[in-house]
Amino acid sequence: MKLLAAVAVLLGPLALATAVPQLEHRVSYDGYRVYRIATHHNAASVKAQLKGFATVPFNLDTDEHLDVAIPPGQISAFESLGLETEVMHEDLGADIAEEGSFAAYRGVEAQAVPSLTWFDSYHSYNDHVQYFNDLQAAFPQNSEIFTIGNSYQGRSIFGIHIWGSGGKGSKPAVYFHGTVHAREWITAKVVEYITYNLLTQYDNDTTVRAVRDSYDFYILPVVNPDGFVYTQTNDRLWRKNRQPRSGSSCVGTDNNRNWPYMWNVSGGASTNPCAETYKGQAAGDTPENQALVAFSQKLRNQGNGIRLYIDWHSYGQYILLPYGYNCQARAANHARQTTLASAVAARIAQPYGTRFTYGPSCSTLYATTGSSVDYMTDVANATYAWTIELRPTGSGGGGFVLPPAQILPSAVEQWEGMKYLLATM
Ligand code: 0X9
Ligand code: ZN
């Protein structure tokens, strides 16, 4: 029995319930109301009206809407502007508190499979490490934990490698990244649920057996560990890594603008270190990106190549295909990718009716340069490279702060989509 579990038994079930630490330097969003403002393609005029407001940008702007948090003292003035809005969070601070009150993971007996209660709440980075170690230990013949390097602050960027009857490393790669954006907590949970099923359903489900025997899986749930930890200690809405830059007091580079491909193209990233989409000083100059590039090259070169790459994000409910850097560019196999994405969206909708939109990233969402999917398509030669933006849509409530009760449904619907994709592609 793990030490933590032993302590839990001694102290009783409530003893280990932890809340996100209430640190003095923690950013408070108590009373902030989050709105989606329709812009009708005229964001500039809406932004002009918001000039006197201490708005917190809640997400990157799209062509159709701005998602912003309004401080409690300015809500009534904001509402009197009469903008076309939907409320995403009535009280962002209250929703963060609900989401952040999670039980510490208690570990399992040696070689036991962790229970599905893992998906009842969110967890700390250390618990994610422990969870993957425990899952792997239950399937030692067909899986292995690997580390591709360390983050800026020295945390391990880890993953699990899973294989089937052909033996380790004998098949094309299926390659997943979660939590490149620190605040997108649901992504780690969803890739963990997929991992859990790939491992536990091999003997029960012929589809799982077939896909496990056809591919080698490389699944990394938290590729931006420093940012993820920072969202739990300081600022729930943090997006980037935690690397400082000379000449700026602002911290952090967007690791999904730093990939060394189309990095120089303008319009899909920022050169301002204070911006949410800061691309870095040079292509591939973050420690996290360097580790990910080296590992991606290893997968590309190892003989069977990369069949599928998915970069898991939230929110918006999109399946985004190549490319981000140019709205006219299409992958050579674009027609096939579209057919698959359409069928995957249909499978995702089956359990709960959740609707995902699909299409090329730039024309469907916005331009992104130096993004992972473009790199995987053209440099790492992945046959399929997608970004999946998980629940919610944004309209009708919620954003990055997805209630814990939606973790399992989000995971279940993605597993349906993935089972179909993996068996069909
Ligand atoms: O902006 C991003 O990096 C992603 N959206 S998010 O709201 N999660 O930040 C979208 C990236 C899409 N890029 C490509 N598919 N190329
Ligand atoms: Zn993201």
From TrEMBL:
Its cofactor is Zn(2+). The keyword ATP-binding does not apply. It holds the Pfam family Peptidase_M14. The active site is at E389 (proton donor/acceptor). Residues 121-425 form the Peptidase M14 domain. One of its GO terms (molecular function) is zinc ion binding. The keyword Ribonucleoprotein does not apply. GO terms for cellular component: extracellular region. Keywords: Hydrolase, Metal-binding, Metalloprotease, Protease, Secreted, Signal, Virulence, Zinc, Zymogen. GO terms for biological process: proteolysis. InterPro entries: CARBOXYPEPT_ZN_1, Peptidase_M14. It is found in: Secreted. Residues 1-19 form the signal peptide. Extracellular metalloprotease that contributes to pathogenicity. Belongs to the peptidase M14 family. This is Peptidase M14 domain-containing protein. It comes from Canariomyces notabilis.
